[in-house]
# Entry
Amino acid sequence: MKNNEIEKLFEGLKEKLDIHEPSTDHQAMFLEKLKQQKEVVQLHPKKRSWYRPLSIAASIAIVFGITIMAFIANPKQEIDLAYVSPQMKETQSFFISAIQVQLEEINEVSSIETKGLVLDAMNQLEKLEADYNFLKKDLFQSGNDKRVISAMIKNFQKRANLLEEVLQKINDINEFKKTNNENLIL
# Structure
């Protein structure tokens, strides 16, 4: 029904609509009329409002401030054994240094034959490290629960034992290789 009314409207206006192309000299005539006009209208640039940029900057500053306050008010969500007590700090330092010494020794004595063994040990060590990081978060949430502290110490012990076993296997492989080579030479 509405389409019929619109069509009727256009039919009635068909004679009044300009549907012809402008003449070829239309542009030249338009420019001539502009030149004849005596009054020149000055366009003033729009005054720039500083309200909007300042409000955006203020919003960013507020969000940034809130973020910083959240980090200051809520320290990192994990703590380690050194945070619990001085004895635990000593225990942690002992295990970390022992593990570091074992890793250095493994790097010194490892060879091409033991490469696979060392890579497997490093993968297991990474898993134990990930478990330890999870335990640090648990320690923070549990409020120094003795079970979590015990699990953290056991994690250090597992890492040290793993590296000790790997070191022993590497030494056995190197010793076997050495005795085999000595028998082949004779």
